[in-house]
Amino acid sequence: MITLFTPLKLGALNVPNRIFMAPLTRCRAGDAHIPNELMAKYYVQRASAGLIIAEATMAIEGNSAFWQEPGIYSAEQITGWKCVTDKVHAADGKIFLQIWHGGRACHPLLNRGAQPVAPSPIAITNDGVRTPEGKKPYVIPRELRDDELPGIVSGFRKAAQNAKAAGFDGIEIHGANGYLLDEFLRDGANKRTGPYGGSVENRARLTLEVLEAVSSVWGNDRVGLRISPLNSYNE
């Protein structure tokens, strides 16, 4: 118990205790995916944690998988998040942003009709996704071309830059739970050939490129990577 409440050096941060808040997506950002006062209040209430990791946040526009989750790709979203981080810091808290791409877990009804993208054209077949029209089955995603993947990496890099402008203390890259980066890692979702498919090294390539890009913005002492090797969520 004494250890739980003692300070800890975590990369570049000195945190006051070892109680960390995991990212919990609340879907309170509205249809424009802009953080708001309700979200600021929610995080300030939890500022006594050693570190808050804020909820799954779209790195790239048009990849909503939850409906009304926040983004970090527009000026309005940066301003909204700045309100959150300023208030958390005023309460002596520290907060990272989790940046994320939903991959094949996205749905056209959440993204103005756009087909989701993934490493291979394989749909999730579980219960389905909640949309403004009720629960709907997942759709078959479009397979990303190799020449599109640098754009994904650039999108994560820009999201990292925007998160810095919004006043966060660091970044967690969401590479877990069956979303885009995890889909590339998994041989059940990634059936492609070439530099991003086949071997473990190739399937890990996109995640490692994103990690390198984000670290180039923040330094590797303010960047974390969430993985879930034993979690079958989203197939």
Protein architecture, described:
By secondary structure, the protein is of the alpha/beta class. It has six helices and eleven strands. It has helices spanning 37-44, 75-90, 149-165, 180-185, 200-203, 205-218; strands at 8-10, 13-15, 20-21, 51-58, 95-100, 117-118, 129-131, 134-136, 142-143, 170-174, 223-226. The longest helix is centred in the C-terminal third of the chain and has 17 residues, at 149-165. It is globular. The model has no long low-confidence stretch (mean pLDDT 96).
Strand order, sheet with most strands: 3-4-5-10-11
CATH class of the domain at 81-92 and 108-235: Alpha Beta
End-to-end separation? 37 Å
Question: Would you tell me which CATH topology of the domain at 81-92 and 108-235 applies?
Answer: TIM Barrel
The H-level CATH homologous superfamily of the domain at 81-92 and 108-235, spelled out, is Aldolase class I
Strand-pairing-aware structural class: alpha/beta
Ordered list of secondary-structure elements with their pairings:
Elements: E1 8-10, E2 13-15, E3 20-21, H1 37-44, E4 51-58, H2 75-90, E5 95-100, E6 117-118, E7 129-131, E8 134-136, E9 142-143, H3 149-165, E10 170-174, H4 180-185, H5 200-203, H6 205-218, E11 223-226
Parallel strand pairs: 3-4, 4-5, 5-10, 6-9, 10-11
Antiparallel strand pairs: 1-2, 7-8
Helix pairs in contact: 1-2, 3-6
